[in-house]
Amino acid sequence: MHELSVCQALLTQVENLARERNASQVLSVSLGIGPLSGVEPALLSQAWPLAAAGTVADNAELLIEERPVRVRCSQCGEESDATANRLLCARCGDWRTQLLSGDDLLLLQVELETAYV
Amino acid sequence: MCDTCGCNVTHGNRHLLAPGGKLQKTASGGEAFTVLKNLLSENDHIAAHNREHFDRHQVLAINLMSSPGAGKTALLEATIDALGDRYRLAVIEGDLETENDAQRIRARGIDAVQITTGSACHLDAHMVHDAVHQLDLAQLDILFIENVGNLVCPASFDLGQHRNVTLLSVPEGDDKPAKYPVIFRAADAVAITKVDLLPLLDDFQVQRASGHVRALASSAPLLELSTRRDGGIDSWLAWLDGELAAYRTHCARGATLRPRIQPEGARLHGLAP
């Protein structure tokens, strides 16, 4: 259950951002997460309220965009969808592919309520 | 935004940051700020710091990951017996509780720092940083970091290591790379341990394990190891020799080595190839 550790790291970033912008509260936090990041979105969603309780992000909604697993074949050049444990080219079946997306673990956007709104 | 260098502002997202971009009021009355930063960027920052420490003293740092009981400590014991005269070695041990593994290493006359994580299921760069400062890096050639036995969480945290090795012991079954793709995809070498049990556990097919690893688009070598046979870890020792030589070549050019698979944060910061 390393999702709580990830949540605490996320919260530190969000709190820093809120402080820099003089925000009175954080309204939402948007993440992009792929299955090959090793972080489970459902567990992250459960851990978030625990981590955020009593902070400026107490009421913030956690929005998670699940990123697809996509690969580019180094042999035939095809770009195709794949799954976490099968990163093969969908056209020629070769295993020598490069990951285009799917290992994302990104803080995309934070929505803040600031004093100047 | 990246606090340090702004390197994550690209052609693709620059417009979001410009006035009139996403810096405007949202439906719920707030202001949206585009961040595009790795969730673990603080960990990655400390990991880079650890790597600088290692490189300053040309210490090759190898992170060993596996499920509990796959034979990480036994492999280290055998490695110390085989290489202790040729290289200066040390070990950082990660476990939830006990000094048992560090004591096994120290019994062979090698420095070992035990990190007891309490309830944490993985090592992170901060823990390794504290442990590194208990070692004299100037007196080392190779530092092994034995991660907490766990096939899930350790894969997500960069420690500053140069290479990842994931162990798969024969009793665990040959389909573990398909079940735990993140940690096996992260491996620069996959060590199949306890191969002396293959005659007893004939449902484990090395070829099948290899197929599962290749399906992760990984070219990592599969090293078949037994610490109970003479010459049983020779392929591992040869791999270590090769990696240490490659690392020293890189250091001589002022460069470093990184695990083949980089977490998202490293890629954003332009560190990965």
Q: Largest sheet of chain B, if any?
A: 7 strands, parallel
Q: Which radius of gyration of chain B do the C-alpha atoms yield?
A: 20 Å
CATH architecture of the largest domain in chain B: 3-Layer(aba) Sandwich
What about the largest sheet of chain A? 3 strands, mixed
In whole angstroms, how far apart are the ends of chain A? 38 Å
Number of DSSP helical runs of chain B: 10
Question: Which key phrases capture this entry?
Answer:
heterodimer; A: 117 residues; alpha+beta; hypothetical protein PF0899 fold; B: 273 residues; alpha/beta; Rossmann fold; 10 helices; globular
What is the secondary structure topology, with strand pairs?
The complex is a heterodimer of chains A (117) and B (273).
Chain A: H1 3-20, E1 23-33, H2 41-52, E2 61-66, E3 70-73, E4 79-81, E5 97-101, E6 105-114
Parallel strand pairs in A: 1-2
Antiparallel strand pairs in A: 1-6, 3-4, 3-5
Chain B: H1 14-17, E1 31-38, H2 41-56, E2 60-65, H3 72-83, E3 89-95, H4 100-106, E4 111-116, H5 125-132, E5 142-146, E6 163-169, H6 176-179, H7 181-185, E7 189-193, H8 206-214, E8 222-224, H9 234-252, H10 264-268
Parallel strand pairs in B: 2-5, 2-6, 3-4, 3-5, 6-7, 7-8
Helix pairs in contact in B: 2-5
